[in-house]
Amino acid sequence: MADTVNITINEWAEDLLQELSEFTVSIWKEERPNLQVDRLVNWFKNLDLKYPPIAIIARIDKKIVGWIFFVQMTTTEAEINPWAMNGHPIVLKEYENDYSIIQNLIAKTIEYGISEGLTRIELSFMESDGEKKTDYQTLGMHLVERNCHMRQELSQKIDFTGFPENLTVVPISQLDTEKFYQCFLETFRASQDIWLNDKSDAEIYDYFHEVVLEKDFPLIEPASIGISTNGQLIAFSIVRESHGDENGQLWIMGVHSNYRRKGIGRNIIHHIKSTLKQKGYKTTSLNVNLTNIPAKTLYLSEGYVEDWIQISYAWKPEK
Asked: Could you give the 3-state DSSP secondary structure of residue 177?
């Protein structure tokens, strides 16, 4: 197009927050007709972020035509328009078919990430929302996963008589952090979880210490456990209050590859569901990569049903 697109990197500020919220609500009025500007402003203000966010803004003749909410998640990773922002760059309807707007926004985002020493930038959106005619692979990103959110009502009686006597079960908070990390790393490096296996060891280290251990959603301690045998940690689960009222979300679960196919994963699921029901939770949920067939098969056999699917892309430096 003939118009010159100017892309700027902007620190998060009160006046900018209001302006971008008004812009975003105007874009989303068809797909989210009940969203109000003050509600979006409050959502932004209530975010508990470890790193200050950045607004990457596209303007034509000083008029905002698109923007990206850039959130650094760990020392090495960041996300584009995470959570309710639904991934895609937010662009004025009259420019949504102008590929150069999104192209310039993504390029500036990657440039900024490189300048900050980041090694990974992710973008995720609901499959039902489509790719909005954007081929992110042509913009320097690669497809990582199709991630399925599953849910289950905790309405039926759950029979769980405990773990086998040769297994020692302790609250996750009592685990030695570095032993937990080593088990975590070995477990997922030998798994079919392509999202984690797409990360470098340094990125997994940061993800474990800055996200897995520190996520701000309340930990449901009785359901979050470490399992050992002969003094060696072999399995774990972390369950938090999130993804809806009275819901326990299984944030992460793993069984070391040397101890799979022994029913330990199923025992953990039974323990989680039994514990949540006893504590008064009405539902439980989890996310699973659709290429992780063993995990998906287990969850389906345990009564979880598919709710929605999220598609994720990532940029990382060329080797």
From this structure: helix
